[in-house]
Amino acid sequence: MADITRRLGWRHLRSTPTAHIRHHRDGKLVHDGPGLGFWFHPLTAALSEVPVEDRELAMTFRARTADFQDVSVQATVTYRIGDPALAAARLDFSVDPDTGAWRGVPLEQLGTLLTETAQQHALDVLARTPLSAALVDGVAAVRDRIAAGLGAEPRLPATGIEVVAVRVMAVRPEAEVERALRTPARERIQQEADRATYERRAVAVERELAIAENELASQIELARREERLVEQRGANARREAEESAAADQVRAQAEAARTVKLAEAEAARSVALARAEAQAAREVGEARAEAQAAWLRVHGDVDVATLHALTGTQLAENLPRIDSVTLSPDVLTGLLARLGGGARG
Known about the structure:
7 helices
């Protein structure tokens, strides 16, 4: 939309580079071109604004295939106005001199023209195509047919319109038909998924079986090694016991030999000691006998009284110590009597 400002009964118009402005004053073309800016009087000016940029027109319409199945077509047509003067002459692109807004709806008219033309050609090609082919190759076929039909449509060049591109996004059947068509594919996909699942499970089972067999083989090998280890430990224990018994036997034999040697030495020593003691006793006896004999020889010529005195002396030497002696009158009388008798004799 053009930008119009007011100044003292005059108007100033300023357009964009993508808007083609045509200014007529009193039936004469005064200004003609894109991106213009100028002053004009609203009472004598006739203004038209024609967009010259590429515009996108999205359209959706329904069609019926050769096997009487309804489908919906989604397409987009890119167009531009190549001849603004011709478009302004054929369509109402006039703008209000006070607001700059279009007085009519020219773009809607262009959209209707393009949509109806494209729909006519799409319906024509789909009406001769079965649903299966339309779903497989319908997008390309409809796009080519719409592009060819719009290029050959005489009303478009006569209106100054150029078609830049045609795109068809989808050709889709009714929801029920689409679900019915999806069912076999879904079942096939599901079957393939189930088969893949079964194969994956089979592979997993085989792997688990292989793992179990490996674990079992490992356990068997471990058991064998443990058995060998037990046997080796038993052999080691037996060897240690035998060696310990042999060592104990050697120690016992050595201890017995040492005990025998000690006993023999002790016996020899005892024998020697006994012999020495017997020799000493014999020598002592002989000495005592010689002393006794000498004593007897010495005292053989001594009188009886002297012998009695010596006997009393030796007896006194061998008697225990007497601290005090109590003599009764009877003992004293008898002793005195003995002493007196002895003196007399």
